[in-house]
Amino acid sequence: MAQTIYVLNGPNLNMLGLREPEKYGSATLADVERLCGDTAKRFGLDMVFRQSNIEGELVTFIQEARLKKAAGIVINPAAYTHTSVAILDALTLTELPVIEIHITNVHQREPFRHHSYVSKAAKAVMAGFGIQGYALAIQGLAGIIGAKEK
Ligand code: DQA
Predict the structure, then answer these.
(1) What is the pLDDT of residues 119-134, one digit of tens each?
(2) Is there a catalytic annotation at residue 24?
């Protein structure tokens, strides 16, 4: 049976394409979903792709990943990266490999974006590759969970 990965997206990422295109580019979240789906397929992985503007909903998705025995999580927690102990706690309790991803290089931006609660639970962090970072994050996760390229 194929392994399943969860790709989770936090607040305002539903506005990709419209949102500050000089920072986030012109691709939409639907484009990101397509890119992730194609990449997951390359490694024989099934994918659940979600976005929410609501912190608690993201916590529920993360808990679901554990309950459904997912193989790992790629998450762009967006602004909750810098504020959410609840998301950190949820990721920690899953005991799953977690890859944190940011479209922009958060370390080049405002000081409040330099700290991530989520990094404490992340096996790896990807930042600054634009939406291509999602594909790189899935490729990295595939390596961690032993999924081979088809
Ligand atoms: C982001 C960076 C965060 O600081 C910001 O709040 C986002 C997007 C990124 O993908 O670069 O919403 O996670």
Answers:
(1) 999 999 999 999 999 9
(2) yes
